[in-house]
Amino acid sequence: MSTWDVKEGELLDEVKKSREQLKTKLKDDWTAANDHSSSIQATAKSVHAETVRVVDEQIKDLDVQMEALDDFVSRAKTENGHHHESHSVSVQSLSNTVEESFGNISSHFKSTFDRVKNLGEEMELDLGDLQDGLEPLNDQLCQPLANLREDITRAALQEYQPTGETPAKVQYHYPTDLPRTEDHDLIISRIDEVSTPTKDRDASDRDGTMVFADLDCPQKMMTSPVRPPPSRMSNASAPEHIGLAGSLREVNPNVPNHTTGSIGFDPRASIISMPPERTLPLFKRSTRVTRSAKKVGVRDPIISEGGENMLPTALEESLSRRKSPRLN
What we know:
Elements: H1 2-134, H2 137-154, H3 184-192, H4 197-205, H5 218-223, H6 232-241, H7 291-296, H8 312-322
Helix pairs in contact: 3-6
């Protein structure tokens, strides 16, 4: 029993010690918990204060931003309203324009359809007229052509059979000497010369004798009155050629000297003996005015033409080419 009492006393002492240790430990833990709670409270207070401060600043910034956003939204609403109104007006005008365009296109299509319809009817009428006109073509043209072709194909060609007879030789009489006028350039150069009053008076004093190859009575022509010149060309050339067949009249160089009487023959009245470069080309009619005539500008150009301006050699060659080879 004593042992149990001793063990009980020791147990009680240990329990007391354990209780004291537990109290001390609990006190220390409580103190530590209290300190930790105080630090947590201080930290929480500081965090709360900082949070409140940050939130207040953010609220202030958010208020400013919200005011700016409200202004932006109001401006956006205003601009959107104006834009919507302008867009509505433009869309309305566009719809009106489209409607007018559709109306114009519809009227144009209607008129085009009417014209095409009328054109089709006219073409049908013309086609009917053409068909009616072409119906007798087979009887009036095709059948005669077919008959003509059959007649030609059936016709027998006759071969040439020589007879051995030579045609009689024929003699052709033609003149070989023809009168000629002066060169065109010489006539124009004489026209371009300015006539003086003295020369005009001398020309009026002279007689107007005209020389012809077939005159029977020269005295009668000499006594006849002088005709006025037909143009300015004859007036300009009268002082120089008053003794030569009255201005530019042709003189037959083949007539003997006794036919013309006492009036002498001027070799300038003919260009038979002139070189080829001073004569006009054969068988060509000049329709252009020479440079000298263009410079004057007030006198009419004189165009030499006709067979009388041909050289005798060229005339004989052209006539000889027309003869039959059997006549040479």
